[in-house]
Amino acid sequence: MDIQTALSQIPTATTEALEALRIQYLGQKGELTAQMQALGKLEPEARKARGAELNVIKTQLTEAISARKTELETEALNAKLAEEAIDVTLPADPTYNGRIHPITVAMEDIASALRSLGFTHAYGPEIETDDYNFTKLNLPAHHPARQDQDTFYLNPFKAEATERYLLRTQTSNVQIRTLETVKPPFRVMGIGRVYRRDYDLTHTPQFHQVEGMMVEAGTNFSHMRGVLDEFLRLYFGKPLKTRMRPHYFPFTEPSAEMDMECLFCKGTGCRVCKQTGWLEVLGCGMVHRNVLAVGGLDVAEHQGFAFGAGVERLAMLKYGVPDLRLFYESHAAFLRQFGKPAISAA
Ligand SMILES: [Zn+2]
Q1: SS3 of 168, please?
Q2: CA-CA distance, 306 to 189, in Å (whole number)?
Q3: What span, in angstroms and rounded, lies between the C-alpha atoms of 122 and 19?
Q4: Could you tell me the distance, in angstroms and rounded to a whole number, from the CA of residue 264 to the centre of ligand 1?
Q5: Beta-carbon neighbours within 5 Å of ion ligand 1
Q6: pLDDT tens-place string over residues 288-323
Q7: 157 falls in which pLDDT band (50, 70, 90)?
């Protein structure tokens, strides 16, 4: 047994080599263990001296092995810590909170602008009868203007059927329902979903409209112009030049389409406004006498105006979005760009 060789090997031994050395000398069948067992064969005097000697060797070996073991464990721990270290100065992965959809934001902004002009919310169902969607709005059966709106009908036409149901093609059903139930004077708005069988760059089968109607004694066309100018100023957040062009709607007379100065070129002409400097924003007019009469009002006594606009159109113009379908294709990056935070940072 060469104790000096063992003691010189221990300080540089690997974990496996160290264990091998421990077994070689101190194991049950180890060299030192064997010598200890051999003590019994010696004379008492010699046994005492050799025993003390062997104990010193055992202590040296045990301490050296233990010290090396501690050293190896510390090395292993340090290596592990270095490997698993987290650099807290690195930028974190971005996290995103949910945002309110830009169309919902637009509807809230539109409602808020109209509320400040005295309009209150009115209701019209999305599943509507042919009567309220067309006939009572001065669009009798076979009226050619019905062709302009590709309607989703819910039950097939039968001569004997009393009601024909459809998905409303316009929020104007709110007009009739209000006229039938609310006594003038009133200013109401209806904002919600409408449906048409159409799908391209500027049409989706389901979209949103805002409808407004004001019926008050003496209401005239210039009141309408003033209200609409103010509405656009509030919604777009700045005063805008507007103009009106004569138009035809079955439920208003006279009717007009309203344009506002192009938001993108400020009237000088660009691709969005097709070089005209103007953007078409809404349709409007004085409520048709036939519609007032259907609503049960005395047309000699009452008059009012109504207007309607596409919510998506207003949102596209406000945010400069070129394709309507982007609003409905659930691209997270797009929605993050235009939506509003669900919870304010304050
Ligand atoms: Zn323009």
Answers
A1: coil
A2: 10
A3: 87
A4: 5
A5: 262, 264-265, 270, 272-273
A6: 999 999 999 999 999 999 999 999 999 999 998 888
A7: low
